[in-house]
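pasting input
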Amino acid sequence: MRIAILGFGSVGQGIARALLAKDLDIIVTGLADSRSGIINPTGIDLAAALARKEEGGPCGDVNISPADVVARADYDLLVEVTPTNVDDGEPALGHIQKALMRRKHVVTSNKGPIALAYPELRDLAAANGVFLRYEATVCGAIPLIHAMQEGIAGNTISRLYGIFNGTCNYILTRMAEDSLTYEQALAEARELGYAEADPTYDVEGIDAGIKLVILANTVLDMQATLKDVERTGITLLTPEALRLAEDQDCTIRLIGEIVPAAGVLRVSPRLIAKTHSLVVEGTLNAVTVETDLAGDLTFIGKGAGSTETASAIIGDLLYIRDRHVQSS
Amino acid sequence: MKLEMRDQPGQLVAALQPISAVGGNIIAVIHQRETPATTEALDVQIVLELPEGRLARLLEMFRAQGVNVVRIGEERLLYECTLIVIGHLMHTDLSDTVDQIDRTGSAEVTELSLAMPAINAPSSARIIIRSTTREEMKKALRILRGVAEQKNLLVIEPLEEA
């Protein structure tokens, strides 16, 4: 199978390293970062591209744009792993549409287009007889979407809730463990690369909210936008609040929750028993799905990271290859 | 709840049967034999838990069995919810916040632990609300959310319902 990769940051490089390390019979014929691109129908030298990135340079030719790669490269499947834009999903949204219209399958980790335009993209993919998969958009390495679409297909989901943001979970873990203030725990998270310079997206619950919207729209048959998510972040939490929780053998975690029948989507700090299966440490994610046939299922795993997100992307790639790509 | 019934064989069983029929849970049965022999009545005290709204039906069934209920004890507050509230709790009149819940009559704040780290810094409180019914608890939480919004307080609710 021939693929083109759009985005050569942490996730894109993780995919390249995994492809180099494993013999998956996948050839990369197009590659682009924000500044440059490469098109090579016989296969791009990924090791050389990684080396160029490591030296701080562009991955390819500055005269080739991401749009050129989408429009001109010879591939069966587009891997779109550029950073998320929650306002209009661009430029990723346009690239995905263009690839689908070229009858190319698409696999993405980009939350923007899926949260904002899933029904349109799904219909566009169907109309062109190709597949669109997005496992990596929610909870990194945890195959939550796959499990819900395939593994527990036929179940009715009464409630879904859990920890969808590793940055917040790290901050709250540190506040509880060592009585750090919110500011101290955030500074530490930044130092370790768990939080962005502008942490708003994580700590105000926007990232968790977008993931709820994606799950609601793609696997729970709801029609939601970020505005429908009742959202409270963790910025006002105090060490004393965590201590008061601790006195009762509880702790506080930022919980995303969907109750489909009641139309509830909510992200907020919640009191939770320390022995609860969702109380995971550090940057882990954990999600419980309450179903009628399967009972309660809890998924725990790494919600971010280069290799972990690449795992979800590669899972989608092989899913599509094994079912739908005839020639490679 | 204290029950009085005729002292005839099988009466105690007849009195207990309706409790399970309405889905109640018997916590204790206190059987007092030393009542004056001159009366034919037998005193039995039963402590029980009942699902909401089943008391009237239970009393009806007792009447049909010839069981006479002497006295119905106090209903205990069965539902409990622990929350944490963060913000300028004293400046925004904490006793008024508590009072607004207590004023409902069927839910009340039964415990409050307060931490005030510094003057002008937001304080944190853990409060426990108890209520007789789930509906009353929901109502109390709605009131608390409303007050919190007005007073700019952050309410941290439990993940699981009371």
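fyi Chain A has two domains: 2-140+307-324, 152-302.
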